[in-house]
Amino acid sequence: MMLYLIIRRLGLCLLCSSLLLPAWSLAETAKNPDKRWAAIVGAGPGFSNRRNELTQYRLAISKDLPWQWSLAEKWTLKTRLETSYFEWHSSLDDSDPDVSKRGEDLVHGMSVSPVWRLEYLPQWDKPIFPYFEFSVGASYITESNIVSKNTNHTTLGCHFQFEDRIGLGSDFGSERRWGVTTYALHYSNAGTCSENSGVNFFELRLHYNF
């Protein structure tokens, strides 16, 4: 498990570097960066090998950063910074004998994430602007032990967790005010603590740009 986490971290670093270096060396700075804010709400189910039956709810705000590059005629790499408040709710019943006797069923958290967004400028006339996003952020959770549907609770090891995510989404409208994104997220401490069970989520987000 430790080796897997190390390889995963190195892979993410190489992915970021492979996209960043061509932008610095070959691409021209994109004209008229948006530099907008976005208000975000999101929710989605969690999954892990411990059957936590978690649901995540999120409120977030993000700001476009000034660094963005035109990689090709129709592709732009943008950066932004996002701050989130989230909650994990478990639907497990404490009276069920198969549910662990330890672990919390409600976890609060905060996260800060630099986000890379690769946008495609389409040829079609419809006001749809698709993109791909990825991020490796940092988060703090109030509880590191989560109730599970077996005899052992899920132990995340510590309050600090990395927040890794990849997503696909699109902005809509001529002014790109509204957008929808689907994410896969992973939380773990990358072996920095003695325990590192990790949890995962699928999340659907709605955002408003202003």
Structure characterization notes:
The chain is mainly beta. It has one domain: Porin (Beta Barrel), CATH 2.40.160.20. It is built from one helix and eleven strands. The strands form two sheets. Strands 2-3-4-5-6-9-10-11 form an eight-stranded antiparallel barrel. The protein has a two-stranded antiparallel ribbon with strand order 7-8. Strand 5 and strand 6 form a beta hairpin. It is elongated, with a radius of gyration of 19 Å. The N terminus is likely disordered.
What best-fitting shape do the alpha-carbon axes yield? Answer: elongated
Sequence stretches where pLDDT stays below 50 over 5 or more residues? 1-7, 17-33
- Using the coordinates above, name the CATH class: Mainly Beta
Per CATH, which architecture? Beta Barrel
* Biggest sheet strand line-up: 2-3-4-5-6-9-10-11
Radius of gyration, CA atoms, in whole angstroms: 19 Å
Could you say how many structural domains there are in total? 1
- Major β-sheet annotation: 8 strands, antiparallel, barrel
CATH topology: Porin
Distance between the termini: 42 Å
Strand content bin = over 45%
Helix content: 10-25%
| H-E string | HEEEEEEEEEEE
Tally the helices: what do you get?
Answer: 1
Features:
disordered N terminus, 1 helix, 54% strand, eight-stranded antiparallel barrel, Porin, mainly beta, 210 residues, two-stranded antiparallel ribbon
